[in-house]
Amino acid sequence: MDRLKHKRAVITGAARGIGEGIARVFIDEGADVIVTDVDTQLGAALAKDIGATFVKLDVRLESDWDALAMSHPQIDILVNNAGVTGFEDGPGPHDPEHASLADWRAVHAVNTDGTFLGCRYAIRAMRKAASGAIINISSRSGLVGIPGAAAYAASKAAIRNHSKTVALYCAQQGLDIRCNSVHPAAILTPMWEPMLGDSATRDATMAALVKDTPMQRFGTVDEVAALCVLLASDEARYITGAEMTIDGGLLAGSAASPG
Ligand SMILES: NC(=O)c1ccc[n+]([C@@H]2O[C@H](COP(=O)([O-])OP(=O)(O)OC[C@H]3O[C@@H](n4cnc5c(N)ncnc54)[C@H](O)[C@@H]3O)[C@@H](O)[C@H]2O)c1
User: Fold this and answer.
1) Where does the pLDDT of residue 46 fall: very low under 50, low under 70, confident under 90, or very high at 90 and above?
2) Which of 100, 118, 147, 157 is buried most, with the most CB atoms less than 10 Å from its CB?
3) In what helix (H) or strand (E) does residue 37 lie, and over which residues does it extend?
4) Distances (CA, A) of 88 to 103, 160, 189
5) Is-catalytic flag, 152?
6) Residue 100: is its pLDDT beyond 70?
7) Element (H or E) spanning 49, and its range?
8) Ligand 1, atom 7, residue with closest C-alpha
9) 3-class state of residue 137 by DSSP
């Protein structure tokens, strides 16, 4: 399968989870893949395993993006996938009444600043060829409010809107650079492990977590990666500024829908 042949792709936060899945499938589709992450050990091991290049990139740092622009001034695809929920370092409050400003800013530094810097790098790196595809991994949390994760939800909503701004800007500039957002929900990745617990209760916990999902299961990284292949490929050449949900039907209805 060569749907991404002759295309160079940069993927952020690609050492594990959804980013890893995208990197693996992009390689299978013939792309030249640059795996980037702050986790150098996992990222370098993955790159070696799949025949990609690893570059350490902290998406929060302008200097890291500048260094990438020097080493890789021309690319065809960027997936802004790196993201944090805010719960990585503990359960601390993230509701709009009790969240600290420091915690709010820490989430936005990765999700919002990282996506802004990534899009800016990509537009510049795609300008010469005047074409390319930017895929921003948002979330269903960017489309609905999340009482217990205020910064995460606000940052993912910002990613959704910035994707549309980038799409319109590029079209206005006469560039064939497309930008779309992807909105997953409940995709089984290491991000969920702290919530799933040990094997005795794992199945029950997983079932409870997806009880409101119409398809009654978690999604897989391969399912998200398949959508990203489509958006990155020339098959999607008329799709820009779009938001793609991949959530087992979760956002097709609402808790208030009549039965
Ligand atoms: N898994 C889900 O159910 C789900 C649902 C909706 C949206 N998402 C989004 O998908 C993306 C990937 O999620 P995942 O479940 O694979 O998460 P994950 O935690 O398994 O992987 C995230 C990766 O990002 C990297 N990362 C963290 N901070 C970084 C930084 N500052 N710079 C560069 N890399 C950094 C981590 O090292 C890790 O490799 C995130 O943006 C997340 O918000 C996930």
Assistant:
1) very high
2) 118
3) strand 32-37
4) 11, 23, 13
5) yes
6) yes
7) helix 40-50
8) 139
9) strand
SS3 163: helix
| Pocket-forming residues, ligand 1, beta carbon under 6 Å | 12-13, 15-19, 37-39, 57-60, 81-84, 110, 137, 139, 184-187, 189-191
- Per the CB < 8 A criterion, the answer to whether 36 and 56 are in contact is yes
Ligand 1 atom closest to the CA of 82, numbered from 1: 24
- Return d(Cα 220, Cα 243) in angstroms, integer: 19
Sign of torsion over alpha carbons 194, 198, 200, 203: positive
Give per-residue pLDDT as tens, 105-154.
Answer: 999 999 999 999 999 999 999 999 999 999 999 999 999 999 999 999 99
**Which residue's CA is the nearest one to ligand 1's atom 43?**
83
Q: Which of 18, 133, 136 is nearest to 75 (CA)?
A: 133
Which numbered atom of ligand 1 lies nearest the CA of 88? 19
pLDDT tens-digit map of 209-252: 999 999 999 999 999 999 999 999 999 999 999 999 999 999 99
Measured in Å, residue 188 CA sits from the centre of ligand 1 at 12
SS3 track for 190-231: HHHHHHHCCHHHHHHHHHHHCCCCCCCCCECHHHHHHHHHHH
| Interval between CA 19 and ligand 1 midpoint (Å) | 7
Ligand 1 atom nearest to CA at 140: 6
Substitution site in 18, 61, 79, 251 for ligand 1 pocket (most atoms within 8 Å of beta carbon): 18
